[in-house]
Design brief:
335 residues; alpha+beta; Poly(a)-polymerase, middle domain; Beta Polymerase, domain 2; 2 domains; three-stranded mixed sheet; 15% strand; binds cytidine-5'-triphosphate; binds magnesium ion; RNA uridylyltransferase
């Protein structure tokens, strides 16, 4: 029932490896850009430690998890001992400090869902958001980065999927489609369930890294250098995986009953998560369990209209990968 149409891969799929890898290469930030990001980070860290000697500044999001394309903004988290009520005060003070140091477009958004200070560095041209005490994001950033070190195909696949999602307008949480973070988890899940598996499940292995944040124990195996050969029994190159990824989300996933779970390396049922009906604004039309905040469904932003958009886009991509003469162009055509 689930497998409406299980497709056989086209015979000439391997000729698409080189063009997909060329797209991947063109998206990777250069060493020069990485150096500029580090330069800005060091400047901000210096300014912050001068004012708050006990605070720590962390990178999270795509600049820290290795899934950042060229020209990404930097997401930073200031870890500081402060009551939630006083976060605004810190953000306003931080904005003052940054402004006095000639950073541009400095804005404290104290009323946003995630309060932040925004800024642009005129020297490097890089924009940056700084939030306070979002430590779980720093940890899930490490988890994603560690997964990326295990097998190069994860980073290749996720770059291509993110590029596709941005080109097709389905990477907009405010419009009911999915975050980049959700897409990377979808890629990790996909590579975990592939047979032979390309990725292990780090949270199911003996933990070598463990921290407790907001009463959540975050533990996983992080000695990923030891897992360098994990994916080698699976010899599928990138084009085949892109094909299979879209085929999976177009025709292989049971949207009515399944929750994807990177934490367990498996599929859970909506029933066991009690994600079977709409509660408040959470509709659970596509279910992606956060690896640490396991009550969070990253698909909760998806509504009855945008689920249709998303599924049509997965089907479009699957059809292109199956039949199109030039998928590497067609896939990324602006919507
Ligand atoms: N994040 C999270 N929970 C979410 C969404 C995001 O914890 N529901 C955290 C993750 O640490 C994620 C970071 O916020 O890495 C940034 O999220 P997002 O903007 O979706 O991802 P980026 O990797 O920064 O992607 P982009 O390159 O599109 O900026
Ligand atoms: Mg980001």
């Amino acid at each position: 029932r689930i497998f409406k149409r299980q497709m056989q891969c086209r015979f000439d799929i391997d000729r698409l490896n080189a063009p997909f890898l060329a797209i991947y290469d063109s998206l990777i930030p250069t060493e020069e850009e990485k150096a500029k990001q580090n330069q800005l980070f060091t400047l901000l860290e210096t300014l912050i430690t001068k004012e708050w000697p006990d605070a720590q500044l962390y990178v999270y999001g795509s600049c820290g998890n290795s899934f950042g394309v060229s020209k990404s903004d930097i997401d930073l988290c200031l870890a500081i001992d402060v009551a939630d009520d006083n976060k605004s005060e810190i953000l306003l003070r931080l904005a003052d400090i940054l402004q006095s140091d000639n950073l541009q477009n400095v804005q404290a958004l104290t009323r946003a869902r995630v309060p932040i200070v925004k800024l642009m560095d005129p020297v490097t041209g890089i924009s940056c958001d700084i939030c306070i005490n979002n430590v779980l994001a720093v940890i899930n950033t490490k988890l994603l980065r560690d997964y990326a070190k295990i097998d190069a195909r994860l980073r290749q696949l996720a770059f291509i999927v993110k590029h596709w999602a941005k080109s097709r307008g389905v990477n907009e949480t405010y419009q009911g489609t999915l975050s980049s973070y959700a897409y990377v988890l979808m890629c990790i899940h996909f590579l975990q369930q592939r047979r032979p598996a390309v990725l292990p499940c780090l949270q199911e292995m003996q933990s070598t890294y463990s921290v407790t944040v907001e009463n959540i124990e975050c533990a996983f195996f992080d000695q990923v250098d030891k897992l360098r050969d994990f994916g080698s029994p699976n010899r599928e190159p990138i084009a085949k995986l892109v094909w299979a990824f879209f085929n999976y989300w177009a025709y292989g996933h049971d949207y009515a009953n399944s929750v994807i779970s990177v934490r367990t390396g498996s599929i859970l049922s909506k029933r066991e998560k009690d994600w079977t009906r709409r509660i408040g604004n959470d509709r659970h039309l596509i279910c992606i369990e956060d690896p640490f905040e396991i009550s969070h469904d990253l698909g909760r932003v998806v509504d009855k209209y945008s689920i249709k958009v998303l599924r049509e886009e997965f089907e479009r991509a699957a059809e292109i990968m199956q039949y199109d003469a030039n998928p590497c162009v067609k896939l990324f055509e602006p919507y």
